[in-house]
């Protein structure tokens, strides 16, 4: 891989500061090398321990055995307390145009510069070995190795958060993690403690809408948006500050899987997202995102009906459009999961000159947490020396020593000011790139409180719900019914219904119906139990204004990119006697469009086609499952379709694909297989292009027409509209 990726690396002139190049110094490749101990002694026998006679006891003297076992015993480090399960990749970022009017961050001012990045995607609640397909928020953390030091944009795939103040973070995480008495359930928010907490914390309402939406079930890490969540600052060379919200927009669009499908994938391939990212990069289908910014001038800080420092609020794109300012491409898989993906340490406080913080109280708390957590997780204060965390520019300061220090600092001084070393290392003037914090004016009393401008807890939750298409709304209703259905305490379910009723009465009524409950009347003032001991309840009462904006199209996934089949996985079901011409015509066209195509047969080995050709299937029905594919095609061939019709796994494959709203194509003869499915009788009798594109199922003997329509259908991703009217019991 290292060799292959060399082709994607920047030109040699840029390589001096390229992260891949810098990592090379630490890479150990054992090809052609001799086996040694950690101290370089060549090992003669690594298969037998040293014994007193060949049937005797092992000797304490065996330093080879002791070193090997001791190292093994210490192989595990604590997993991340949140975001433990993740996957990462290397890549590059390039800004489109000079942004120096807004920021002096050099990597955003030079369209010629290619900045190396390392990006880690994650789930939040599950342990390191948990499934990728949990209903959960996804982490989207980007480390930019800039010429002015590292900038970490540690975001999520949802633009808001559950809480408004960092002090509540441990409570939130304790509530969502498995319950402490029996450590269940793993990687799931569908249990009492989570909803007990949430139902008493109305500020979480907006985030709950996102977390219960299809955004929590991404089709791929490559098909997720990313958000910096907090409002940050851009500061230019003149010291002028503008507020900024960061966005990542995936060029493949934003797509999700169905909940039933997610649960199945968790069993069939718990590494689904990890594998998808890895495979795409190995195949050269490099994932890409555009970096977007929403800019709000200082003067407009108070112009909105919400507080821009409140992390439970978005700035709707209708009010402040997202400008796309650059592109990130992930083009190299890590060489070693532990050394890179596990040991990478992100920190929201790693900023470069030109980027600064605001007083968002969630951001402020994060500024403390991220260094602190690495001290325990990575074993001490020198985690910045781990190769993946090193900046591409030199590090010089008077910090010294600590566990596993690797830098060998020369000289007598480790303090400043010093005369002995001529004041080295020297401070840097702002004009020469020294970091200076934005001179924000502060005039305040010390107080434990929250601004009243943070108390509208529901209007943006409603805006989100109202902006969804009908199928998306149904998914939110289903998700809430599922999650609250798993909650045992009826009073928690009921309290949550009262919260939902503040968002949308119809939504609450639908969920209540599923739970067989009535919505209790709870006054706004009594919904919030997250209040200080001496506080007056009324001072902490939520507000619920109507909100000026009824709908924001950017919040729905309906309008996303739907014109490409790149990297989509298509299953072709075939058996002996398959019509090889039809199969290969469709397959060739799909591959040309950038899709990944697998032939799935009753068994591995070979299929003999109608024209006596040998075809090697990629998977059998034992190893494949429809939930691992985006679409399915059944070519004709009398014997093949007869076998598939009688093969329960093939029929199940199609039923499931239909249930999960995927595109299905079949040659004329293959109608025989479709007739054995649950959905065949639910399809309209009359076929027209219009019905095909609505239903997502095409049967045609005209291979050319079938191919082009099938490609159009796959690009649409899913046919969610058919989900409810055409429910089948697969
Ligand atoms: Fe994090 N978060 N977080 N978080 N977070 C961590 O740092 C924390 C928050 C996010 O791939 C931890 O290195 C606090 C918001 C990502 O390595 C820890 C608060 C957002 C990752 C931590 C938040 C995030 C983390 C655990 C509330 C989106 C994974 C391990 C004030 C903007 C990074 C670690 C990776 C990881 C603390 C809230 C994103 C404990 C205290 C909001 C993507 O430091």
Task: Please outline what is shown here.
27% of the residues lie in helices and 14% in strands. The chain contains 21 helices and 18 strands. The longest helix is centred in the middle third of the chain and has 17 residues, at 361-377.
Key features of this structure:
27% helix; 10-stranded antiparallel sheet; alpha/beta; Catalase HpII,  Chain A, domain 1; 6-stranded parallel sheet; 730 residues; binds CIS-heme D hydroxychlorin gamma-spirolactone 17R, 18S
Give the overall silhouette: globular
CATH superfamily of one domain: Catalase core domain
Please summarize the sheet with the most strands.
10 strands, antiparallel
% residues in beta strands? 5-15%
The CATH topology assignment of one domain is Catalase HpII,  Chain A, domain 1
Helix content: 25-40%
Can you count the beta strands? Answer: 18
Quaternary status of these chains? single chain
Stretches where pLDDT is under 50 for at least 5 consecutive residues are 1-13
Distance between the termini: 41 Å
The secondary structure category is alpha/beta
What is the CATH C level class of one domain, in words? Mainly Beta
**Radius of gyration, taken over Cα atoms and rounded to an integer in Å:** 28 Å
Second-tier CATH architecture of one domain: Beta Barrel
């Amino acid at each position: 891989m290292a060799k292959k990726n060399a082709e994607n690396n920047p030109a040699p002139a840029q390589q001096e500061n390229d992260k891949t190049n810098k990592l090379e110094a630490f890479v150990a490749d054992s090809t052609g090398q001799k086996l040694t101990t950690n101290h370089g002694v060549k090992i003669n026998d690594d298969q037998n321990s040293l014994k007193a006679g060949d049937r005797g006891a092992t000797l304490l003297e065996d330093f080879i055995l002791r070193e090997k076992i001791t190292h093994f015993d210490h192989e595990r480090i604590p997993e991340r307390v949140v975001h433990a399960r993740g996957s990462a990749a290397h890549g590059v970022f390039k800004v489109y145009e000079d942004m120096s009017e807004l920021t002096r961050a050099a990597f955003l001012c030079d369209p010629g510069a290619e900045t190396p990045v390392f990006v880690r995607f994650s789930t939040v609640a599950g342990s390191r070995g948990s499934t990728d397909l949990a209903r959960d928020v996804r982490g989207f953390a980007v480390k930019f190795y800039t010429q002015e030091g590292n900038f970490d944009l540690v975001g999520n795939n949802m633009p808001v958060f559950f809480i408004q103040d960092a002090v509540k973070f441990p409570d939130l995480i304790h509530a969502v993690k498995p319950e402490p008495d029996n450590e269940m359930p793993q990687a799931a928010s569908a249990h009492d403690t989570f909803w007990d907490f949430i139902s008493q914390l109305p500020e979480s309402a907006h985030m709950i809408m996102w977390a219960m939406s299809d955004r929590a079930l991404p089709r791929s890490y490559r098909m997720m948006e990313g958000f910096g969540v907090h409002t940050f600052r851009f500061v230019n060379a003149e010291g002028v500050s503008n507020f900024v919200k960061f966005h990542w927009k995936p060029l493949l669009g934003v797509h999700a899987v169905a909940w039933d499908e997610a649960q199945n994938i968790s069993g069939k391939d718990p590494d689904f997202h990890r594998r998808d990212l890895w495979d795409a990069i190995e195949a050269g289908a490099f994932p890409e995102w555009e970096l977007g910014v929403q800019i709000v001038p200082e003067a407009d800080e108070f112009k909105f009906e919400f507080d821009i420092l409140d992390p439970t609020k978005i700035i709707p794109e209708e009010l402040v459009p997202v400008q796309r300012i650059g592109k990130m491409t992930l083009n190299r898989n890590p060489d070693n999961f532990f050394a890179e993906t596990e040991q990478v340490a992100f920190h929201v406080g790693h900023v470069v000159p030109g980027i600064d913080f605001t007083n968002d109280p969630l951001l402020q708390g994060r500024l403390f947490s991220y260094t602190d957590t690495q001290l325990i997780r990575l074993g001490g204060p020198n985690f910045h020396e781990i190769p993946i965390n090193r900046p591409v520019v030199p590090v010089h300061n008077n910090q010294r020593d600590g566990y596993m220090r690797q830098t060998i600092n020369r000289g007598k001084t480790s303090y400043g000011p010093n005369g002995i070393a001529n004041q080295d290392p020297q401070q840097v003037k702002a004009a020469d790139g020294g970091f200076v914090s934005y001179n924000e004016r502060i005039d305040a009393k010390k107080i434990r409180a929250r601004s009243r401008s943070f108390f509208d807890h529901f209007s943006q939750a409603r805006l989100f719900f109202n902006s969804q298409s009908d199928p998306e709304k149904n998914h939110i209703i289903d998700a809430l019914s599922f999650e609250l259905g798993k909650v045992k305490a009826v009073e928690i379910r009921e309290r949550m219904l009262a919260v939902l009723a503040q968002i949308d009465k119809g939504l609450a009524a639908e969920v209540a119906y599923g739970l067989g409950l009535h919505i209790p009347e709870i006054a706004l003032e009594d919904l919030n139990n997250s209040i200080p001991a001496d506080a007056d309840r009324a001072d902490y009462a939520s507000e619920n204004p109507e909100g000026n904006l009824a709908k924001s199209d950017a919040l729905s996934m309906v309008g996303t990119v739907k014109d490409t089949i790149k990297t989509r996985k298509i299953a072709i079901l075939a058996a002996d006697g398959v019509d090889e011409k039809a199969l290969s015509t469709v397959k060739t066209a799909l591959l040309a469009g950038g899709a990944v195509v697998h032939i799935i047969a009753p068994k591995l080995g070979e299929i003999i086609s109608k024209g006596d050709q040998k075809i090697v299937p990629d998977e059998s029905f034992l190893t494949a499952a429809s939930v691992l594919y985006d679409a399915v095609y059944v070519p004709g061939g009398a014997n093949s379709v007869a076998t598939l019709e009688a093969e329960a796994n093939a029929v199940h494959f199609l039923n499931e694909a239909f249930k999960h709203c995927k595109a299905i194509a079949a040659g004329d003869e293959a109608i025989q297989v479709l007739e054995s499915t649950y959905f065949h009788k639910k399809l309209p009798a009359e076929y027209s292009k219009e019905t095909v594109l609505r239903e997502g199922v095409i049967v045609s003997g005209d291979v050319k027409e079938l191919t082009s329509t099938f490609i159009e259908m796959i690009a649409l991703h899913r046919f969610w509209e058919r989900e409810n009217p055409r429910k089948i019991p697969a």
